[in-house]
Amino acid sequence: MSLRVVYSKSFGVKYKAPICSKAFILYAVITLLTFILPFLFCYRSNGLWLKYETYREQPRVQFKLQYLLYAETSDHTSPLICGNFPRTLQITDACSTIKVIEEDTNIDGKNEFLDLELYLTTNDTVDVLSIALLLIFDFKIQDMCLFEMESMVVINHSSGLPGGRLNVFGDLDLIQKLPLVCSTRRPIRINKPILLFESPDWLVNIYEEYSKRTR
Prior knowledge:
Structural class: alpha+beta
Membrane topology: Multi-pass membrane protein
Family: Belongs to the TMEM231 family.
Main location: membrane
Number of domains: 2
Radius of gyration: 32 Å
Helix content: 10-25%
Organism: Cinara cedri
Largest sheet: 5 strands, mixed
Low-confidence stretches: none
Keywords: Cell membrane, Cell projection, Cilium, Glycoprotein, Membrane, Transmembrane, Transmembrane helix
Order of helices and strands: HEEEEEEEH
Oligomer: single chain
Shape: elongated
Strand content: 25-35%
């Protein structure tokens, strides 16, 4: 014989406690964590179901006061070479004066402007036909990714006519070949030197090795 419910009644139990009691404080903490923890999880995971993300950051670029000047002259057997690097290369000390000024125009702790003046000393019988100037910089980003490396700026100019002055104005561009895989907890530092002079064709070798860098 089957039975049927003919009457039912629900009972509710409420527990009350003063605001300053341990029970109320525990209740308030649990309630806050119930709402706050999901937001913290979303924030730390950079969003839910995130597949692609882009962001912009101004890197910290600082001139390391390391440079190399290679000038070809009308005397092809005697180029003018100067720079401030270890004496592993025979130089001509043709750079009599170098002046460097870095400016932080918007006072954000990062330099936006570099003024470099380099004076080349020659005699009256030699004409300068081409210039190759290599400048070494420190490159660093740190907001979303801790990444530091030594980078190079190359200035090349050649002419069939001799010249006595060269003015160069431009912006530094970052050439990135591969996406960066890093985080704020695992920094990446590339300290491989760029100016290496072991090879007889050291200038070509510097260009070749630097072009092979993936970052």
